[in-house]
Amino acid sequence: MNPQNANTEIQYTFKIFRFDPDVDSSPRYDTFVKTYPRGRTVLEALLNIHDTEDDSIAVRYSCRSAVCGSCGMLVNGAPVLACRTQLTNLIGDQVLIEPLPNMDIIRDMVVDMKPFWEAYRRVEPWLHVNGDRPEKERLQSHRQVSSLDPYVNCILCACCYGACPVVRFQEQYLGPAAIAKLFRFMQDSRDQRGPQFLEKMNNPQGLWGCHTIFRCVDACPKDIRPTDTIEALRRRLMVYKFKKLFRMV
Ligand code: SF4
Ligand code: SF4
Ligand code: FES
User: Fold this and answer.
1) With a 6 A CB cut-off, is 174 part of the ligand 1 pocket?
2) Nearest CA among 239, 248, 152 for reference residue 199
3) Angle between the 176-186 and 226-245 helix axes, to the nearest 10 degrees?
4) 222 lines ligand 3 (CB under 6 A)
5) How far apart are CA 14 and CA 94, in angstroms?
6) Fewest C-beta in 10 Å: which of 57, 201, 202, 205?
7) Do 139 and 230 reside in the same domain of the chain?
8) pLDDT value at 29 more than 60
9) Is the C-alpha dihedral spanning 145, 149, 153, 154 positive or negative?
10) Please, which pLDDT band fits residue 134 given cuts at 50, 70 and 90?
């Protein structure tokens, strides 16, 4: 283990996943030994390795500040944003970098997020409002806005989607981010779609796919708790079904 006082440069061994499905018959891991000062992020290290060692390494990123959601990947087996993960916060000096699971690899750490976006589209992630557009904006109370606050910060990074063991075996499962987004809209006082909308998700590909394993909660860099939203929507659906059974709706 390296000493880690403020002025120390630390030597790390990076093992980086490499795979170009157009060229390679199987993945490999390339190793780079590099020394960095404290405060470097995994993304900065990757870009430095790209610039100084091998410019064919493929990484997706944009904001470098945990806003755009582009740089999700596995670091030492954990789904994280590379731009938000400091090397000094990792345990040890070995850094294993791999793409997010549950999605096809386009190249190296760049995955095809098509199934993630398709699931997202299935929940219709926009406000459903009836009637004509009002003359003024649709106002909400502070309390109504506060009830959305924990869920609006999703940056669609797919770290939760990559972490979910159900998505791995059940490709049609909506996954945690899409369901959390559905909750965000159904929780919105302006949304008028009503609990009957949840009947579309009354199946193992929807609300009942989750095994409540909480890996999405652990993975989320924005402290969103998708599992809680899945439970809440399940309850809402069951109340609706019950009321419907007894002709109360
Ligand atoms: S709690 Fe549900 S949605 Fe979240 S990772 Fe586990 S199975 Fe997937
Ligand atoms: S819920 Fe969290 S982990 Fe999932 S896509 Fe949104 S920000 Fe990323
Ligand atoms: S580069 Fe934008 S979230 Fe990491």
Assistant:
1) no
2) 239
3) 60
4) no
5) 6
6) 202
7) yes
8) yes
9) negative
10) confident
Which atom of ligand 1 is the closest one to the Cα of 176? 3
- Structure confidence at residue 1 (pLDDT): 46
Predicted confidence (pLDDT) at residue 4 exceeds the cutoff of 60: no
Q: What is the CATH number of the domain that holds 103?
A: 3.10.20.30
Ligand 3 atom closest to the CA of 62, numbered from 1: 1
**pLDDT reading at 3 higher than 70:** no
Structural domain containing residue 152? 114-245
Ligand 2 near 159 CB (within 6 A): yes
Position 163 in a domain: yes
Centroid of ligand 1 to alpha carbon of 186 (angstroms): 20
Same domain, 170 and 203: yes
Can you tell me the distance from the alpha carbon of 220 to that of 226, in angstroms, rounded to the nearest whole number?
9
- Taking residues 177-204, report their average pLDDT: 96
pLDDT at 7 over 80: no
Q: Tell me which residue of 61, 101, 98 sits closest to 83, measured CA to CA.
A: 61
Ligand 2 centre distance from Cα of residue 158 (Å): 6
What's the structural domain count of the chain? 2
- Ligand 2 contacts CB of residue 224 (under 6 A): yes
pLDDT-derived band at 6 (thresholds 50, 70, 90) equals: low
Residue nearest to atom 8 of ligand 2 (CA): 157
Q: What is the pLDDT of residue 5?
A: 58
